[in-house]
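thought: user wants a sequence for this fold. calling inverse folding tool.
action: design(structure=
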C-alpha cells in the first residue's frame, strides 16, 4: 500500500493518499513560526493500518523542515509526540505544560 503525505495549503491541510484516494487529513494553520494542529481524521475503513501515524509523521517532518514549532491541539498528534520523544522538540518548552508534555522528555 503506497501512501503519500501531501501539503494542500490552499485548503489548510495535509492529506494522506493511497494512490489518488485521500484517506486522511490533518488541518493546520501557520502563524509566527508556529504550526497549530487542531484536527486529524482518517477514513474509518482504513483504520488499523498505520495511516494516522504516517500522516502525523509526515506533518511533523514538514514542520521540522520548515523550522516551525507545533501546537498539538489534536489529541492524536499529542499522543504521537508522547510515543515518539524525538519529536518533542517541535513543541516549544513554554507550550509543553499546556499540552501535558512537560514531563514527557524526562
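)
observation: tool returned 106 residues.
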Amino acid at each position: 500500500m503506497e501512501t503519500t503525505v501531501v501539503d494542500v495549503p490552499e485548503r489548510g491541510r495535509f492529506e494522506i493518499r493511497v494512490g489518488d484516494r485521500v484517506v486522511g487529513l490533518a488541518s493546520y494553520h501557520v502563524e509566527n513560526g508556529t504550526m497549530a494542529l487542531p484536527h486529524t481524521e482518517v477514513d474509518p475503513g482504513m483504520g488499523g493500518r498505520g495511516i494516522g501515524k504516517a500522516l502525523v509523521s509526515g506533518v511533523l517532518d514538514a514542520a521540522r523542515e520548515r523550522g516551525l514549532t507545533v501546537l498539538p491541539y489534536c489529541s492524536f498528534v499529542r499522543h504521537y509526540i508522547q510515543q515518539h520523544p524525538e519529536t518533542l522538540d517541535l513543541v516549544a518548552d513554554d507550550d509543553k505544560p499546556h499540552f501535558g508534555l512537560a514531563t514527557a522528555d524526562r
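thought: summarizing for user.
answer: Here is the designed sequence. Residues 51-65 form the longest helix (15 residues).
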